[in-house]
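Lab meeting, item 3. Inverse folding demo.
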């Protein structure tokens, strides 16, 4: 097709109507600029945030062979500065100061850049954003610094099983195919080796940008509250200068897996405890048949968890604790269908039976033929989901659509492949036929393979071995696998039929306390914002006996896992139909339901019934105990920054216990211990409910009455109300004024080279005026801290300054993970930053101050996007006991009255280095590279070392609790 014909075809498509959800009130318009940049404008008059995403059809597959990671490095470098805005990092500073955020990611065939910002800052933000695709500056000095950030990002991933296994899949593929490549980049690939070859990385970077970043490969989404004419003019003006070199999209030819990469069994050693099987087939990419949805249909069946499913049978044998199935790692030219199974120890010993059962299930699908009713049901579920989808924050919305614009025709930009609508047995059958033994790759992970492997993957050091497996071997496994009753799922009773909206009599803005008894408290909030037939239910069972001892905590954990285990075959249908539930544990246990309200009551009553009739099944107890044991054992493989934050919480939050104690008592616990414990756990309880959404008040009250009737008011009640002395509190340690505490700890994983410092500054108890000073300071200091400590000093990829809230006690925390400096040195760099920032704060003009105040006010006035977001906000107030549902209004008022001097006074009292009232706690986790410092480092004179967390906690005073008053009687 000639250039003119191509242009004409594109122009004809401009007028195509874009399919949107029935409830979607936004306006969409597609435009094409003269430079061939395709743009989608989204007009949402109700939005509080504007956003944009630029998706460039170039990714790591386009990396030069001698510079792995160059596309990813360009993604890091592009936002440094531009000819029009030459001050380094001024873009990020502008975005942050206008209440927004910015980020980017590199995939195989695309790179996505995106931001959001308060509405009043959008025009300039968009101009700054456009300059990176027009005339970016990638200064040489920044290039050498930012290579360290890419290296630090890679260091963070080296001991992550997800990254390691993904690279291993790629490694065992054709070396001449870009799928084989290492895409992240590190110091070696971007600095050391290029220098040795006489390559200048910066020159290569500029060359890569100029050769690949062409307007015709870009897709832009702009989300705004402006009028259509205004935003169209803005976009045309700001983006028309992007060069169009008519570059064609790079799609690798050929398949990543040749015959030698198929029919293989790969044994590999993970970092974490546990065994996994991943069964992978190269298949026809679903993108070519997304209306027929072959992978979605087959993933739905193979990944099903109802009775008769593969997972249900594996569970019955005690061989698996999780299973998922679906397409992954796809592009236009190739794709993989992956089945992942989490194995128990017994399952690990029965690998051949499990593979045999999987192929038996595939045989069942072959024999049953492609079922119209299953496809119709799946299609109906997908359609309801699309038309009643929750509104999400604009930043995520634009990223998804910009990615879709590279792959789908314009009418399907919003739907992508989420609406399978064409029943085509032949297309589904074609993909099903590819699930054959002669096309399979099996990856089997277990620590038990340690010392029995003979290969090492070069980028992450993963140990593995490969053996060939023939059709006949797999056929043998199929024949010897147990002849279990595998069958297709039943019709789904949870598909909602009543999607009508309840009439809300009173437009209440905040939750109200509908009822309170000695057993329960019910908070209720009807939906007045979202007009979607969904509800949110949270039931928090306060059980004082749950936290009495490490044993009690573990048994409560096992109890919640067993409840979900018993419910799974039944409740899985609800989840497929868009009604989700979860049971969690903390000071008792919590039941959460979220989704279509139509059948929610049925699921809730089933959960309550399971609690009331709970009996321990010994075989399931053993499986869950094994699963939880591995979960606790794997906590030592958390990132050092996660370990440091955990220690910080352990020091600050009264009554918390370390997971090491739970791991110690776990092996001693048996099924009979749980049998004895559950009646004790439930014997005294008080449950607090929050019910919101498309539910009327009488329905909410009826739900609570039902729970009371089943648990408290039956002839032999399981539960009694709490005594007044038993109501739970959540108290936080009050650090002494003028004290700087330091808690050092060696990293739990001796192979991890990363160290981390969490530097926490405690401010005080929930108070509107104090809160807004803390929030405003965090907003003003966030970007300068990132710029200085990450961009300039390159301490590490994870460098964050953020607020912290422990049960209503506010503070600030710096979180920095690093391989280049140990915690002691990072502590000094944080203090040096605060001294430097003090000067900046004192030089701040009144206009700058007002601009930041207005940005924070806009952020506070931002409306909740969906029911889950709103419910999470209100539930936090209930759970903390603060109950300030009108918090935003009061904090906005406090902000409007705040002066610059008051912010400086706040800094001088709480944050400034050496401030007499300042209270700090630094937690240092020492990685492998800094373990000698841990052993040798003498405490710095101004730091008071904590050598025993619990001794320290007992010696400190506590803030009063906000919680524990609900439902109490006066003594």
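The presenter then showed the designed sequence:
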């Amino acid at each position: 097709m000639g250039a003119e014909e191509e242009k004409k075809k594109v122009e004809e498509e401009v007028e195509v109507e874009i399919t949107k959800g029935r409830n979607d009130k936004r306006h969409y318009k597609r435009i094409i600029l003269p430079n061939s940049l395709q743009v989608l404008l989204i007009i949402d008059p109700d939005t509080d945030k504007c956003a944009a995403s630029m998706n460039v059809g170039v990714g790591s597959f386009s990396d030069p062979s001698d510079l792995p990671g160059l596309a990813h490095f360009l993604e890091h470098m592009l936002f440094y500065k531009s000819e029009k805005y030459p001050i380094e990092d001024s873009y990020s500073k502008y975005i942050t100061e206008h209440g927004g955020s910015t980020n980017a990611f590199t995939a195989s065939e695309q790179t996505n850049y995106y931001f959001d910002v308060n509405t009043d800052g959008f025009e300039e933000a968009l101009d700054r954003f456009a300059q990176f695709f027009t005339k970016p500056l990638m200064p040489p000095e920044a290039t050498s610094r930012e290579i360290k950030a890419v290296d630090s990002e890679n260091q963070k991933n080296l001991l992550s099983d997800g990254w390691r296994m993904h690279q291993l899949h790629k490694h065992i593929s054709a070396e001449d195919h870009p799928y084989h490549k290492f895409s992240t980049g590190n110091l070696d690939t971007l600095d050391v080796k290029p220098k040795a070859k006489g390559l200048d990385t910066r020159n290569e970077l500029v060359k890569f940008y100029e050769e690949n970043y062409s307007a015709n490969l870009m897709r832009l989404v702009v989300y705004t509250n402006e009028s259509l004419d205004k935003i169209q003019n803005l976009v045309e003006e700001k983006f028309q200068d992007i060069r169009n070199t008519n570059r064609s999209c790079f799609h690798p030819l050929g398949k990543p897996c040749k015959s030698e990469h198929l029919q293989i069994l790969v044994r590999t050693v993970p970092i974490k405890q546990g065994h996994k099987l991943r069964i992978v087939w190269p298949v026809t990419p679903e993108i070519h048949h997304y209306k027929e949805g072959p992978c979605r249909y087959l993933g739905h069946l193979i990944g099903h968890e109802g009775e008769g499913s593969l997972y249900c049978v594996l569970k019955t044998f005690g061989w698996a604790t999780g299973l998922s199935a679906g397409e992954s790692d796809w592009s236009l030219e190739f794709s993989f269908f992956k089945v992942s199974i989490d194995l128990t120890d017994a399952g690990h010993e029965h690998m051949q039976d499990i593979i045999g059962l999987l192929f038996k299930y595939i045989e069942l699908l072959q024999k049953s033929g492609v079922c119209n009713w299953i496809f119709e049901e799946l299609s109906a579920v997908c359609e309801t989901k699309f038309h009643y989808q929750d509104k999400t924050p604009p930043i995520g919305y634009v990223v998804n659509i910009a990615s879709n614009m590279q792959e789908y025709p314009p009418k399907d930009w919003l739907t992508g492949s989420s609406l399978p609508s064409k029943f085509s047995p032949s297309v589904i059958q074609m993909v099903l036929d590819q699930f054959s033994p002669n096309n399979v790759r099996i990856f089997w992970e277990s620590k038990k393979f340690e010392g029995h492997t003979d290969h090492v993957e070069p980028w992450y050091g993963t140990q593995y071995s490969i053996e060939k497996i023939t059709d006949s071997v797999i056929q043998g496994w199929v024949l010897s696998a147990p002849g279990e009753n595998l069958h297709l799922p039943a019709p789904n009773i949870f598909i909602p039929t009543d999607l009508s909206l309840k009439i809300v009599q009173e437009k209440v803005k905040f939750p109200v306390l509908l009822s309170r008894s000695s057993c329960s408290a019910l908070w209720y909030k009807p939906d007045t914002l979202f007009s979607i037939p969904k509800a949110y239910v949270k039931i928090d069972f306060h059980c004082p006996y749950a936290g009495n001892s490490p044993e009690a905590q573990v048994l409560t954990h096992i109890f919640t896992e067993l409840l979900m285990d018993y419910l799974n075959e039944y409740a899985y249908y609800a989840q497929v139909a868009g009604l989700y539930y979860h049971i969690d544990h903390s000071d008792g246990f919590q039941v959460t339901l979220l989704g279509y309200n139509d059948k929610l009551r049925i699921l809730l009553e089933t959960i309550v019934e399971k609690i009331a009739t709970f009996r321990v099944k010994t075989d399931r107890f053993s499986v869950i105990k094994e699963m939880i044991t591995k979960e606790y054992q794997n906590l030592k493989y958390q990132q050092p920054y996660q370990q440091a934050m955990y220690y910080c919480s352990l020091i600050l939050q009264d009554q918390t216990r370390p997971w090491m104690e739970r791991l110690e008592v776990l092996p001693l616990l048996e099924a009979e211990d749980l049998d004895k414990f559950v009646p004790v756990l439930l014997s005294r309880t008080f449950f607090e409910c929050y019910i919101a959404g498309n539910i009327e008040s009488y329905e909410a009250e009826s739900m609570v009455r039902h729970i009371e009737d089943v648990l408290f008011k039956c002839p032999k009640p399981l539960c009694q109300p709490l005594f007044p002395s038993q109501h739970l509190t959540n108290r936080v340690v009050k650090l002494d004024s003028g004290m700087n505490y330091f808690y050092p700890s060696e990293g739990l994983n001796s192979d991890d080279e990363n160290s981390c410092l969490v530097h926490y500054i405690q401010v005080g108890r929930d108070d509107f005026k104090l809160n807004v000073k803390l929030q405003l300071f965090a907003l003003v200091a966030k970007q300068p801290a990132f710029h200085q400590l990450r961009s300039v000093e390159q301490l590490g990829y994870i460098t964050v300054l953020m607020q912290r809230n422990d049960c209503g006690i506010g503070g600030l925390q710096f979180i920095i993970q690093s391989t280049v400096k140990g915690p002691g040195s990072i502590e000094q760099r944080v203090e040096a930053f605060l001294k430097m920032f003090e000067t900046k704060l004192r030089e701040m003009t009144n206009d700058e101050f007002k601009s930041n105040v207005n940005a924070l006010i806009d952020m506070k006035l931002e409306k909740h996007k969906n029911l889950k977001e709103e419910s999470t906000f209100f539930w936090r107030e209930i759970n903390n006991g603060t109950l300030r549902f009108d918090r935003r209004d009061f904090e906005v008022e406090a902000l409007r009255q705040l002066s610059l001097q008051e912010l400086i006074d706040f800094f001088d009292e709480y944050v400034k280095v050496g401030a007499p009232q300042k209270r700090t706690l630094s937690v240092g986790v020492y990685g492998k590279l800094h373990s000698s410092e841990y052993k040798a480092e003498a405490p710095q004179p101004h730091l008071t070392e904590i050598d025993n967390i619990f001794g320290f906690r007992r010696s400190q005073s506590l803030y009063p609790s906000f919680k524990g008053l609900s439902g109490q009687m006066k003594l």
